[in-house]
Amino acid sequence: MTNELLGILFTNVHDDLIHELTTRRSMASIPFGARYRLIDFSLSNLVNAGVSKVGVITKANYQSLMDHLGSGKPWDLDRKNGGLYILPPYNTSEAGVYEGHVDALVGIMQFLKRSHETYVALCDADVICNIDLKAMLEAHIEKAADCTVAYKHGILPRNHRDLMSFTIGENERIQDIRLEGNCQCERDFSLDIMILEREKLIDLVESAAAYGRTSFARDILLPRVDSLRIFGWKVATFAEVIDSAEHYVEANMKLLDQSVRRELFTPDRPIYTKTRDNMPTKYGVDAKVRNALIADGCIIEGTVENCILFREVIVKKGAVLKNCIVMQGSTIGEDAFLHYAALDKNVVVSPKAKLQGTAKCNIIIQKDAVI
Amino acid sequence: MKKTECVAMLLAGGQGSRLGVLTQNIAKPAVPYGGKYRIIDFPLSNCVNSGIDTVGILTQYQPLALNDYIGSGKPWDLDRANGGVHILPPYQKSKGGDWYKGTANAIYQNIPFIERYNPDYVLVLSGDHIYKMDYAKMIDHHRRSQSDCTIAVFEVPLSEASRFGIMNTREDGTIYEFEEKPKKPKSNLASMGIYVFTWTKLRQYLCEDAEKSNSSSDFGKDVIPAMLAAGEKMSVYRFSDYWKDVGTIDSLWEANLDLLNPNVKLDLSDPAWRIYSRSEGMPPQYVDRRAVIENSLVTDGCEIYGEVDFSVLFENVTIEPGAQVKYSLVMPGAKISKDATVQYAIIAENVVVGPGAVVGESPEECEDLEGWGIAVVGEGLTVGENAKVSAKAMVRESVKAGETVA
Question: What pTM was computed for the model?
């Protein structure tokens, strides 16, 4: 069972949607939830289902991702058999860098063909959820499906080109696929996590590529909604597809809700990430912390309310942070005041500095900035 | 086999009986410390940070938790193709087998392990202390002074010197006498139980010691005195940074709370000398609206809804609303239920303190100050609803609701 499933992750999906955070990294390596990167969720989902071979398709800006993944140790993917495969763009003279999932898969065709696993799980790395892929695979096999797609019910994410929404029929069979773009309506929509037979995937991709098609949803699944047995796999627990900087902030803040944490951090399916061997977080004599999610390695001497603090954040005496996201290694100087701000990594906020955004519009500060 | 300059041998077989219920099921080096560490993380991390990549861990007492914790040595970067970490329990030989009789005997029984690496020096460590030390400097000192044995020493107040093994030295730092717990100490240089030996010399003395039927085969009692008597060159290596024995309930409690004292020189956040530990897959800590946390260390996986002051919370601890934790250590996975009070206490792993229960007393409130001390609740136990655990109690069985344990 465990060697039956091959994992493929797309890491540069929708980078343009959060350009504030992707100028120097890919979507997959955006920090999330105090100590994670987006890719940790899909990687952990795969590993928790017993997957021991994962191909990570990269395209651009992938230095920070490579740094994060290393040899795959934290996910137990430093293996002799299988393990982690970083698959940078295969830039042929006639093709150039890929645009959609289909040409990305064409670029790794040799990898797909040389693998021996019966099934493949394709996952976009901008989806945050903790799902049981093993159960999804079992359902896929039991239903003799050609393709099983994880979906959730909710408001459609914005700006996602080729995001599929479904009409789900009896026994979870997908009857209709629509690509509705920016309709902002309530739908059963794809989480872009799907399982197919490897041989089938190779066939579908090769035939689409022969016609110069690039979109997996538009060019492969949509025209075959009747001829293929496509099934849905409903995710009723926390699942977010990040579609903008505002939504990114919102999704982070949702983790302050206990029920969301229970769904995302289940003890039987832990979310793994790179360890940094920080000491525990130190709360000083004057620390006032309310409703906050905090990683190890922070030193807090000021006031922190409704915030997400990543590792090694220092909040000096008298500093006040409300409704903020502060990424790894940032320092907030004495008596600084930050309201509705999102700080990227290693930002230094000088003493008494003031940053005030609004609930609707968070101030986003770039990596390594000094305020 | 590639030559290895120095092999470290870590003595981790002791029971640590003075820690009572805390070492009932685990060896002392596996006792949790500092929120996310275990005592053994300190010598192990020191080894790696000092460039020593071949470490033998000698286990004997309750090795299960320790073996499990060390695993392949991954968290300390000691999963190596050459060297790495090796667990060395006592084993059966063709002519019978023996438990490790003493510290020196444990090394003696593993001579074949050490010989595999053909080292110049052997570093002998214990798993009893919290400290950050660059062993490479000590080995350098050993090499430059051309000693046969170098012993790390720490200056203790002369008034306390009679509790330690004391090294009496000449001006050049060579040792002329070793006194175990002397009534009238002549010096204040206490042995830290950290030894560097030139391997050929140590091998010779271990073999000689093994021939003596009346020897207790202990470094302090037998091997060091024998080397001194034979006139080998023995030197001290002075160490003056933070060093603390965590062999008793009081010292374990103090050494943890030392991390909250800004005047204590033990910085675990130095990126150049990280202390590594095994910790995987835990979510970040959550601090609720109702929570009050001051002057404390809190680790990944904790959920805090109550009040925490002057305490160290280990991973996955839950403090429910209305609960109060003061001057205490709450070890991994423990839960302090609503309206419970925990003060001046050590709550071991996976303990559940029931609603309204009271564990420990503050010295101010305690009527019998002579009988005051840190209260300890052993691993996996439950303290029932509204039960009371008095100061200095050592709880070995679950406490029923409403009961009082003295």
Answer: 0.90
